[in-house]
Design goal:
The protein is of the alpha/beta class. Helices cover 49% and strands 10% of the residues. The chain has a single domain (11-220), classed as Methylglyoxal synthase-like domain (Rossmann fold, 3-Layer(aba) Sandwich), CATH 3.40.50.1380. The strands form two sheets. The protein has a five-stranded parallel beta sheet, sandwiched between helices. A two-stranded antiparallel ribbon has the order 1-7.
């Protein structure tokens, strides 16, 4: 492992990934980003992509691309795998002042991601519902979201991460004040929120499944070839 010793203070927002379950305030965030960063390219998935295209209208093609077109791999049925792709994670994790990392990006025809906007499947809300069973809970365990959030938050030196729609205006104001760029202090504070959020998310899953005996869990399924 090599320690990072040199980072940029101001990082221009040129490439963003937006993939959210909670789509509130996207109609504020996305136009705000485009107004402040007119050359921005946004990569998005599924329902998030459709929502953004809906309010961008005729301008959508200029600013947004589906992640599946960027990676060259279609989403799997039901959105099971959308964002777990080497090309995306290169963009999340590469360091600007690593020559080897820049060669990796060039080899894969990938771009460095400067802003990631994501939030997770509503696991806590699901398990709070009446008559929820282990299969209802299992279907709402987010995989791609936490993986991406951990990657971008680890690389806070370069990537700003938004998990809370209440932070959208704050970041838009900062980007506007800094001519299209994020500051290291804000990137650092935002990355703290990510690890607290993903930690709480994993703990909620563990707290739900841990007390359930297998004999209770198996009632949700027809188990084939059981001895």
């Amino acid at each position: 492992m090599r320690k990072v010793e040199k980072i940029d203070g101001l990082v221009p927002v040129k490439n963003a990934v937006i993939t959210v379950f909670d789509k509130s305030r996207l109609d504020i965030l996305v136009p705000g980003l485009i107004n402040t960063c007119p050359d921005i390219k946004i990569y998005s998935t599924g329902g998030t992509y459709k929502k953004i295209v809906e309010f961008l209208g005729d301008n959508a093609e200029k600013y947004i691309q589906e992640v599946s077109k960027y990676t060259g791999l279609p989403e799997t049925e039901g959105g099971l795998v959308k964002t777990l792709h080497h090309k995306l994670f290169l963009g999340y994790l590469t360091e600007k002042y690593s020559t080897a990392h820049q060669r990796d990006l060039e080899r894969e025809n990938a771009v460095p991601i400067d802003l990631f906007v994501g939030n997770l499947y509503p696991f806590k809300q699901v398990i709070a519902s009446e008559n929820v069973d282990i299969e209802d809970a299992r279907m709402n365990i987010d995989i791609g979201g936490p993986s991406a959030l951990r990657a971008v938050a680890k690389n806070w030196h370069r990537v700003a991460t938004l998990i809370d729609p209440n932070d959208y205006l704050m970041l838009l104001n900062e980007i506007k004040e800094n001519k299209g760029s994020t500051t290291p202090q804000t990137r650092f504070e935002l990355h703290k929120k990510v690890f607290r959020h993903t930690g709480n998310y994993d703990m909620a899953i563990a707290d739900f499944v841990d007390p359930i005996p297998f004999e209770e869990a198996k009632k949700s399924y027809t188990i084939l070839n059981e001895k």
